Amino acid sequence: xxxxxxxxxxxxxxxxxxxxxxxxxxxxxxxxxxxxxxxxxxxxxxxxxxxxxxxxxxxxxxxxxxxxxxxxxxxxxxxxxxxxxxxxxxxxxxxxxxxxxxxxxxxxxxxxxxxxxxxxxxxxxxxxxxxxxxxxxxxxxxxxxxxxxxxxxxxxxxxxxxxxxxxxxxxxxxxxxxxxxxxxxxxxxxxxxxxxxxxxxxxxxxxxxxxxxxxxxxxx
Length: 220
Prior knowledge:
Layout: H1 3-13, E1 22-23, H2 25-32, H3 36-49, E2 52-55, E3 59-62, H4 67-91, H5 94-113, H6 116-133, H7 137-150, H8 163-180, H9 183-219
Antiparallel strand pairs: 1-3, 2-3
Protein backbone atom coordinates (compact mmCIF):
# COMPACT_ATOMS: atom_id res chain seq x y z
CA UNK A 1 0.00 0.00 0.00
CA UNK A 2 1.34 3.44 -0.93
CA UNK A 3 2.25 6.07 1.65
CA UNK A 4 -0.67 8.22 0.49
CA UNK A 5 -3.09 5.32 0.88
CA UNK A 6 -1.78 4.77 4.41
CA UNK A 7 -2.36 8.43 5.25
CA UNK A 8 -5.93 8.36 3.95
CA UNK A 9 -6.48 5.07 5.79
CA UNK A 10 -5.35 6.75 9.00
CA UNK A 11 -7.95 9.50 8.52
CA UNK A 12 -10.65 6.83 8.37
CA UNK A 13 -9.41 4.74 11.27
CA UNK A 14 -8.93 7.67 13.65
CA UNK A 15 -12.38 9.03 12.88
CA UNK A 16 -11.45 12.13 10.86
CA UNK A 17 -13.40 10.57 7.99
CA UNK A 18 -16.54 8.89 9.29
CA UNK A 19 -18.37 5.89 7.81
CA UNK A 20 -20.45 6.99 4.85
CA UNK A 21 -18.41 10.16 4.25
CA UNK A 22 -17.75 11.11 0.61
CA UNK A 23 -14.07 11.35 -0.28
CA UNK A 24 -13.42 14.39 -2.44
CA UNK A 25 -10.40 13.76 -4.67
CA UNK A 26 -9.56 17.43 -5.06
CA UNK A 27 -9.72 18.12 -1.32
CA UNK A 28 -7.51 15.11 -0.61
CA UNK A 29 -5.06 16.19 -3.32
CA UNK A 30 -4.82 19.66 -1.79
CA UNK A 31 -4.52 18.31 1.74
CA UNK A 32 -1.60 16.03 0.87
CA UNK A 33 -0.13 18.35 -1.78
CA UNK A 34 -0.27 15.85 -4.64
CA UNK A 35 -2.13 15.63 -7.93
CA UNK A 36 -5.42 13.78 -8.27
CA UNK A 37 -3.78 10.82 -10.05
CA UNK A 38 -2.03 9.38 -6.97
CA UNK A 39 -5.18 10.08 -4.95
CA UNK A 40 -7.23 7.94 -7.35
CA UNK A 41 -4.65 5.15 -7.12
CA UNK A 42 -4.65 5.35 -3.31
CA UNK A 43 -8.45 5.14 -3.25
CA UNK A 44 -8.35 2.08 -5.52
CA UNK A 45 -5.91 0.43 -3.12
CA UNK A 46 -8.13 1.19 -0.14
CA UNK A 47 -11.20 -0.09 -2.01
CA UNK A 48 -9.46 -3.46 -2.37
CA UNK A 49 -9.30 -3.69 1.44
CA UNK A 50 -12.99 -2.92 1.89
CA UNK A 51 -12.28 0.24 3.88
CA UNK A 52 -13.82 2.46 1.19
CA UNK A 53 -16.31 1.94 -1.63
CA UNK A 54 -15.98 3.14 -5.23
CA UNK A 55 -19.44 3.86 -6.58
CA UNK A 56 -19.90 4.21 -10.35
CA UNK A 57 -20.40 7.86 -11.37
CA UNK A 58 -20.65 8.86 -7.70
CA UNK A 59 -17.08 8.64 -6.45
CA UNK A 60 -15.48 7.19 -3.33
CA UNK A 61 -17.10 6.83 0.09
CA UNK A 62 -15.90 5.52 3.42
CA UNK A 63 -17.49 2.09 3.80
CA UNK A 64 -20.35 1.91 6.25
CA UNK A 65 -22.12 -1.01 7.90
CA UNK A 66 -25.80 -1.26 8.69
CA UNK A 67 -26.73 -1.82 12.36
CA UNK A 68 -27.30 -5.52 11.63
CA UNK A 69 -23.97 -5.81 9.81
CA UNK A 70 -22.16 -4.08 12.66
CA UNK A 71 -23.62 -6.48 15.21
CA UNK A 72 -22.81 -9.52 13.09
CA UNK A 73 -19.27 -8.29 12.45
CA UNK A 74 -18.72 -7.60 16.15
CA UNK A 75 -19.96 -11.07 17.15
CA UNK A 76 -17.70 -12.68 14.53
CA UNK A 77 -14.75 -10.65 15.79
CA UNK A 78 -15.41 -11.79 19.37
CA UNK A 79 -15.27 -15.46 18.38
CA UNK A 80 -12.15 -15.02 16.26
CA UNK A 81 -10.31 -13.06 18.94
CA UNK A 82 -11.20 -15.64 21.59
CA UNK A 83 -9.79 -18.37 19.34
CA UNK A 84 -6.64 -16.30 18.80
CA UNK A 85 -6.28 -15.91 22.56
CA UNK A 86 -6.60 -19.67 23.09
CA UNK A 87 -4.06 -20.46 20.39
CA UNK A 88 -1.69 -17.76 21.63
CA UNK A 89 -1.63 -19.44 25.04
CA UNK A 90 -0.54 -22.60 23.25
CA UNK A 91 1.79 -21.18 20.61
CA UNK A 92 3.46 -17.95 21.78
CA UNK A 93 7.23 -18.10 22.13
CA UNK A 94 8.75 -17.06 25.50
CA UNK A 95 9.89 -13.71 24.08
CA UNK A 96 6.40 -12.99 22.74
CA UNK A 97 4.90 -13.72 26.15
CA UNK A 98 7.38 -11.40 27.87
CA UNK A 99 6.66 -8.61 25.38
CA UNK A 100 2.92 -9.04 25.92
CA UNK A 101 3.37 -8.88 29.68
CA UNK A 102 5.49 -5.72 29.44
CA UNK A 103 2.97 -3.98 27.20
CA UNK A 104 0.13 -4.91 29.54
CA UNK A 105 2.01 -3.53 32.56
CA UNK A 106 2.72 -0.25 30.75
CA UNK A 107 -0.99 0.04 29.94
CA UNK A 108 -1.73 -0.02 33.66
CA UNK A 109 0.14 3.26 33.99
CA UNK A 110 -1.82 4.73 31.07
CA UNK A 111 -5.12 3.66 32.61
CA UNK A 112 -4.17 5.10 36.00
CA UNK A 113 -3.24 8.41 34.37
CA UNK A 114 -6.45 8.50 32.33
CA UNK A 115 -4.56 8.73 29.03
CA UNK A 116 -7.34 7.54 26.73
CA UNK A 117 -5.68 8.11 23.35
CA UNK A 118 -2.47 6.41 24.42
CA UNK A 119 -4.41 3.50 25.94
CA UNK A 120 -6.42 3.07 22.73
CA UNK A 121 -3.23 2.91 20.68
CA UNK A 122 -1.65 0.41 23.06
CA UNK A 123 -4.87 -1.61 23.08
CA UNK A 124 -4.69 -2.08 19.32
CA UNK A 125 -1.08 -3.26 19.66
CA UNK A 126 -2.00 -5.68 22.46
CA UNK A 127 -4.82 -7.28 20.50
CA UNK A 128 -2.60 -7.44 17.43
CA UNK A 129 0.12 -9.19 19.45
CA UNK A 130 -2.41 -11.77 20.62
CA UNK A 131 -3.80 -12.42 17.14
CA UNK A 132 -0.31 -12.78 15.69
CA UNK A 133 0.71 -14.88 18.69
CA UNK A 134 -1.79 -17.50 17.57
CA UNK A 135 0.69 -18.30 14.77
CA UNK A 136 -2.10 -18.93 12.31
CA UNK A 137 -1.79 -16.50 9.41
CA UNK A 138 -5.32 -17.06 8.06
CA UNK A 139 -6.95 -16.57 11.45
CA UNK A 140 -4.83 -13.51 12.25
CA UNK A 141 -5.64 -11.88 8.90
CA UNK A 142 -9.38 -12.45 9.32
CA UNK A 143 -9.32 -11.12 12.88
CA UNK A 144 -7.36 -8.00 12.02
CA UNK A 145 -9.60 -7.36 9.00
CA UNK A 146 -12.73 -7.38 11.18
CA UNK A 147 -11.10 -5.18 13.82
CA UNK A 148 -10.20 -2.68 11.12
CA UNK A 149 -13.70 -2.67 9.67
CA UNK A 150 -15.10 -1.86 13.12
CA UNK A 151 -12.43 0.58 14.26
CA UNK A 152 -14.13 3.72 12.87
CA UNK A 153 -17.11 2.89 15.08
CA UNK A 154 -15.02 2.25 18.20
CA UNK A 155 -13.29 5.60 18.65
CA UNK A 156 -15.17 6.38 21.87
CA UNK A 157 -15.22 2.94 23.48
CA UNK A 158 -12.78 3.88 26.26
CA UNK A 159 -14.30 7.26 27.05
CA UNK A 160 -17.07 6.11 29.38
CA UNK A 161 -16.40 6.59 33.09
CA UNK A 162 -14.17 3.89 34.58
CA UNK A 163 -13.79 1.96 31.33
CA UNK A 164 -9.99 2.23 31.20
CA UNK A 165 -9.59 0.68 34.64
CA UNK A 166 -12.09 -2.10 33.90
CA UNK A 167 -10.52 -2.85 30.52
CA UNK A 168 -7.08 -3.14 32.09
CA UNK A 169 -8.41 -5.55 34.71
CA UNK A 170 -9.99 -7.65 31.94
CA UNK A 171 -6.69 -7.58 30.05
CA UNK A 172 -4.95 -8.79 33.19
CA UNK A 173 -6.96 -12.01 33.20
CA UNK A 174 -6.27 -12.53 29.50
CA UNK A 175 -2.55 -11.86 29.71
CA UNK A 176 -2.09 -14.02 32.81
CA UNK A 177 -3.76 -16.94 31.07
CA UNK A 178 -1.75 -16.53 27.87
CA UNK A 179 1.59 -16.06 29.63
CA UNK A 180 0.96 -19.06 31.89
CA UNK A 181 -0.08 -21.21 28.92
CA UNK A 182 -3.70 -21.86 29.93
CA UNK A 183 -5.71 -22.03 26.65
CA UNK A 184 -9.14 -22.52 28.25
CA UNK A 185 -8.77 -19.55 30.59
CA UNK A 186 -7.32 -17.40 27.80
CA UNK A 187 -10.32 -18.17 25.60
CA UNK A 188 -12.82 -17.46 28.40
CA UNK A 189 -11.04 -14.26 29.45
CA UNK A 190 -11.15 -12.84 25.91
CA UNK A 191 -14.85 -13.71 25.56
CA UNK A 192 -15.54 -11.97 28.88
CA UNK A 193 -13.46 -8.92 27.94
CA UNK A 194 -15.12 -8.40 24.58
CA UNK A 195 -18.52 -9.19 26.06
CA UNK A 196 -17.98 -6.40 28.58
CA UNK A 197 -16.82 -4.14 25.77
CA UNK A 198 -20.06 -4.84 23.93
CA UNK A 199 -22.02 -2.31 25.98
CA UNK A 200 -19.54 0.50 25.41
CA UNK A 201 -19.27 -0.57 21.77
CA UNK A 202 -23.02 0.01 21.29
CA UNK A 203 -22.67 3.40 22.95
CA UNK A 204 -19.76 4.16 20.61
CA UNK A 205 -21.87 3.19 17.61
CA UNK A 206 -24.57 5.65 18.63
CA UNK A 207 -22.02 8.41 19.01
CA UNK A 208 -20.35 7.50 15.74
CA UNK A 209 -23.63 7.69 13.86
CA UNK A 210 -24.42 11.12 15.26
CA UNK A 211 -20.91 12.40 14.58
CA UNK A 212 -20.92 10.84 11.12
CA UNK A 213 -23.76 13.10 9.99
CA UNK A 214 -21.76 16.18 10.90
CA UNK A 215 -18.47 14.97 9.43
CA UNK A 216 -20.10 13.74 6.24
CA UNK A 217 -21.47 17.24 5.74
CA UNK A 218 -17.96 18.66 6.16
CA UNK A 219 -16.54 16.35 3.48
CA UNK A 220 -19.57 16.16 1.18
